[in-house]
Sequence to fold (400 residues):
Amino acid sequence: MSIYASLIWRELRRAWSTGGLALPLVFFLLVAILFPFAVGPDAKLLGRIAPGVIWAAALLAALLPVERLVSPDLESGVLDQLAVRGLPDSGVAAAKVAGHWLGFAPALLAATVIASGLLQLPGEGLAPLLLGLLIGTPGLAALGVATAALVAGLRGAGALAGLVMLPFAVPLLIFGATADQPGALKLLGAVSLLLVAGCPFVAGAAVRMGRS
Amino acid sequence: MSGLALRGVACLRGGRLLFEGLDLALAPGEAALVTGPNGVGKSSLIRIAAGLLAPAAGSVECEGARALMAEAPALDSELPLAAALNFWAGLDGRRDVVPDVLASLDLGPLAQVPVRMLSTGQRRRAALARVVASAAPIWLLDEPANGLDAASVALLEGLIAGHRAAGGIALVATHLPIALPDAREVRL
Fold:
């Protein structure tokens, strides 16, 4: 098994075994459930706002695991041990992005099917929403890892993570929530690709700076 | 041929100069013992030698793989000890040696115990097991005797002696006495 494959596998294993995945998903569903209570049982209105609500809920849910993505590995010395073995910090961050996405995205897509039912999303709206999430979540995962690396070791890291991460996630939100419009998916893909390509380097630089 | 050489190394931490002009060259079979009071820069020297910290001046040359034992054990706390070591041994391509290494450190009976249940001394020995299993020629040990009982310190001394006899290099920072015959002494 190659080094990066075992790093990705470790991320997946830790995400499931430490309960770091179940909590964001329950939170995601809870936010989706809150909306019908808040705006009333008007099926038409709910169906119209459903994609936006689901994307906002996905963004908030993606914030929850940020604290366990980098900080524990920094404290336990795992990142140092990987660096001593000559692995680039940005490569380790890329493996974390991949592992985080593989754990987070499939579960989120499954939960979205449930949430879309709760929000009375019209049947033909489900496919573009799922496609948008599939395209957008890699960017969200990359942003999560970069944020985690930036705030790792700081006091009040959780609150700070939201302030760092959410503004950068706004383009994903805009193009994701309007995925049924022409061209939106392409722009969503562009934003997601940019984040996936850039964030590992940001995270790697943050980890390196944290050492000195 | 492995080797570790520090030339004119200086260490600056938080605007304070901890040491400067440090020269140290270690050839296969050699060891150095870094001693000195708390806060003098022993751990920083180990981190500089490991390549984790850039020296403020001077250079570090290193031939061959390094294995670092720092304060944190870097073992996943929720995993059984053997599985946690297997992760690192797998990265180093040496998964098959883990049972033997565990036995050589008296950790054999603890192989299936989760890392979080281990005592301080057992955790230190587990971190040492990670270093031994890596088969790296250069060992960088930061306070390896912390939390170890007398028998375990003797075990540690034996392991370092065996490593040196096989042509390995050891750089050991400690404030506790560790017997390293013919070791270079670096007093910070």
